[in-house]
Design a protein that fits this description.
This is NAD-dependent epimerase/dehydratase family protein. With 353 residues, the protein is of the alpha/beta class. 42% of the residues lie in helices and 14% in strands. It has a single domain (11-349), classed as Rossmann fold. The chain has helices spanning 19-30, 45-56, 76-79, 99-120, 141-145, 166-183, 211-220, 238-250, 267-278, 291-301, 307-313, 323-329, 336-349, and strands spanning 11-14, 34-39, 61-66, 84-87, 126-130, 189-195, 197-199, 232-237, 256-260, 263-266. The chain starts with 10 loop residues before the first strand and ends with a helix.
């Protein structure tokens, strides 16, 4: 199915103040488009000032709409007249008391809310949902159980639960919900972007709550000076993820899920990427902490470092196949060192580190 989007019509971006969303909004505005930015609190100047600054310098126009993921019908006004909807809004945190209430419900209900609204809004042709590689796997160990030891778009996460890695569970349930709603109608097609760990410079450093920034901070503040856990992960630049969304929206033949991951890597390699430029001034880790030691101290250092998690991820290689997005959407990923240096520099410039 070929879907052509009319660029003279407005485009909806939910969660427009988010980390990835900011770069996507920038790309759309620079392309001269009208962006309907759905945000929880358009009145909060510190949340939107960076977007206003971009809009002032761009040929495009931004319009704000107050919306709430959990409120039925709260995206109706924002979606009016849009052929293309980007649903990026979703909770991403490891700080929660009640995973059902703080992770699962907002992710699943929010997705249902936005996509059910798309069913009711005439003229919508394509919905691009920000999912995650977390909807494909929970632990690096899952890669070993995948065909040829490599994650592909055909694989779904079957190992996360409310008790273990509820964030991954929330992303899995939300994306499944999206595909289910998509299959109930034929007006629009659904494309999902499934990024691995997203790094890169935020457009609004002061208000960035992204989980990747707490990790980045630990790479520079001495947390890992004895060595980093050699945790197998995928890494991708926030600017490349935004471009992937843009191309998923405007490439007529785009379809299905897209693993959006540039590098098969681990925490130690992230430290090594920072070492040449920052190693003299900051305690960036270049060696790995032994697994036995992590099993001993991990659970005390960080509640997310359970022994099960350490066993399933430390010294385990992570691999994903990103050939589909390169071929279909023509995405060229940035080198890892550029991503890491640009991210780290923002922390320094903003005295976060």
């Amino acid at each position: 199915m070929m879907t052509n989007i009319d660029k003279t019509k407005p485009v909806l971006v939910t969660g427009a103040t988010g980390y990835v969303a900011g770069w996507l909004v920038k790309r759309l505005l620079e392309d001269g488009m009208t962006v309907h930015a759905a945000v929880r609190d358009p009145e909060k100047e510190h949340k939107v000032h960076h977007l206003n600054g971009i809009a002032e310098k761009s040929p495009g126009v931004i319009k704000y709409f107050k919306s709430d993921l959990l409120e039925d019908g709260s995206y109706a006004e924002a979606m009016e007249g849009c052929e293309l909807v980007f649903h990026t809004a979703s909770p991403f945190t490891s700080e929660y008391d009640d995973p059902q209430k703080e992770l699962i419900e907002p992710a699943v209900k929010g997705t249902a809310n936005v996509l059910n609204q798309a069913k009711k809004t005439s003229g919508v042709k394509r919905v691009v949902v920000t999912s995650s590689c977390a909807a494909i796997y929970t632990d690096a160990k899952d890669v070993q159980d995948a065909p040829n030891n490599i994650l592909t778009e055909d694989i779904w996460n079957t190992t996360a639960s409310l008790e273990y890695q509820p964030y991954s569970y929330s992303k899995t349930l939300a994306e499944k919900q999206a595909w289910q709603i998509s299959e109930e109608q034929s007006e629009w097609d659904l494309v999902t972007i499934n990024p691995s760990l997203v790094m890169g410079p935020p457009l609004n450093p002061g208000a960035t709550t992204s989980e990747s920034f707490s990790l980045l901070k630990q790479l520079g503040d001495g947390t890992f000076k004895m060595g980093a856990p050699k945790l197998g992960i995928g890494l991708v630049d926030v600017r490349d993820v935004a471009e992937a969304h843009y191309q998923a929206g405007f490439t007529p033949s785009a379809q299905g899920r897209y693993i959006t991951s540039a590098h098969n890597t681990n925490f130690v390699e992230l430290g090594e990427a920072l070492e040449p430029k920052y190693g003299d001034s900051y305690p960036v880790p270049t060696k790995s902490m032994p697994k036995w030691l992590l099993l001993l101290v991990g659970p005390f250092v960080n509640k997310n470092l359970s022994r099960k998690f350490i066993r399933n991820n430390v010294n385990v290689e992570w691999q994903a196949d990103n050939s589909k997005i390169k071929k279909d959407l023509n995405i060229n990923f940035r080198p890892m060192r550029e991503t890491m240096e640009d991210s780290f520099q923002v922390l320094i410039d903003n005295k976060i580190i």
